[in-house]
Design goal:
Largest sheet: 11 strands, mixed
Oligomer: single chain
Order of helices and strands: HHEEEEEHEEEHEEEHEHEEHEHEEH
Strand content: 25-35%
CATH class of the largest domain: Alpha Beta
Number of strands: 17
CATH architecture of the largest domain: 3-Layer(aba) Sandwich
CATH topology of the largest domain: Aminopeptidase
Number of helices: 9
Structural class: alpha+beta
Number of domains: 2
Shape: globular
Distance between the termini: 34 Å
Length: 333
């Protein structure tokens, strides 16, 4: 994928529940390669590429990004905010945010007269340059959402941006629909509201009734100073998930994915994520159950303004996804 397109995917506004703008960008990118493209009632973007086997595979990556929502505006024009998804308050202070209408602000926190203060969500505020409540209300209202102002930075083989979770995997789906060949009906699903409870994936899977689900998301790494031990490193390949807080991947699905990687000569790592979940958990629990697995891209500093991944892992994730789609026999959990 060219750098300009990737940057557009990563920096388009789209907090949880407000994914329309990024959905439109992705629709334009996948429509030329799909037999059908539509948005469901919850807002998931679904691109179908038909096959001949009678089997259905659902791929998913979530479009939404974490953010802050305005809960009050004080008399001096400062915005009091709450989190939308897993926002880390200490990592938010000192960073810029942007609202849907382009209004920018600086996030900071309350301190006492000695300049001391504990950074918690309930003492964060956003300064948009207003000098009164009335001036602020000309730009922003209660209920409006802001996100970290996207800073797209290529650093050798590494990429840093605030939205790698999970826009880097949305980009992978875009590449896969262009490159993959499959005998099966493949549903490329760009899901909504993942960051607040895997909501979009569950509704999409219920409607599609797939024979196999493969989700793509980011995962943590254990390769930075003083990191919690984890057998994932940048540059060593995408991961095949074993389990996280939302799912235990059936061994048959893991073997399916690992065999696809081995036969295609694609490096991969096994992933056990101590906390957190992905669309995989929602897909697996749909209707009577769906065999579901996950390909992850190792990412440092998740849920911060400087999420960082390795582009070689991204490229191999696309290759692994295509290799899975090209297999004729699907796993039965």
């Amino acid at each position: 994928m060219d750098t300009k397109t990737l940057e557009t995917i990563l920096t388009t506004y789209g907090p949880t529940g407000h994914e329309d703008r990024i959905s439109s960008v992705l629709r334009d990118l996948v429509a030329p390669y799909a037999d059908e493209v539509y948005n469901d009632k919850l807002g998931n973007l679904i691109a179908l590429k038909r096959g001949v086997s009678g089997k259905k595979i659902m791929l998913s990556a979530h479009m939404d990004q974490i953010g802050l929502v305005v809960v009050a505006i004080d008399e001096k024009g400062f915005l009091r905010v709450a989190n939308v998804g897993g926002v880390n308050a200490p990592l938010s202070a000192g960073h810029q945010v942007v609202f849907e209408n382009g209004t920018r602000g600086a996030v900071y926190f309350e301190r006492n007269e000695k300049g001391v203060g504990e950074v918690k969500m309930n003492n964060l505020f956003v300064d948009i340059g207003a000098e009164s409540r009335e001036e602020a209300e000309q730009l922003v209202n209660v209920g409006d959402m802001c996100v970290f102002a996207g800073r797209f930075a290529l650093m050798g083989n590494r990429l840093s941006c605030s939205t790698l979770d999970d826009r880097i995997c949305c980009a992978a789906l875009v590449e896969a629909i262009q490159k993959a060949r499959s005998e099966h009906d493949v549903y490329y699903v760009f899901t909504v509201q993942e960051e607040v409870g895997l909501r979009g994936a569950g509704t999409a899977a219920y409607a599609i009734e797939p024979d196999l689900g493969i989700s793509l998301d980011v995962t943590g790494t254990g390769d930075v100073p003083e990191a919690l031990p984890m057998a994932v490193e940048l540059g060593k390949g995408p991961t095949v998930k074993v389990m996280d807080s939302s799912v235990i991947v059936p061994p048959a699905v893991r073997r399916f994915m690992e065999n696809a990687a081995a036969e295609a000569g694609i490096p991969f790592q096994r992933e056990v994520l101590r906390g957190g979940g992905t669309d995989t958990g929602a897909v697996q629990r749909t209707r009577g159950g769906v065999p579901a697995g996950c390909i992850s891209i190792g990412t440092r500093y998740i849920h911060s303004p400087v999420e960082t991944c390795d582009m070689r892992d991204y490229e191999n994730a696309v290759k692994l996804l295509c290799a899975c789609l090209e297999r004729k026999e699907l796993p039965i959990a």
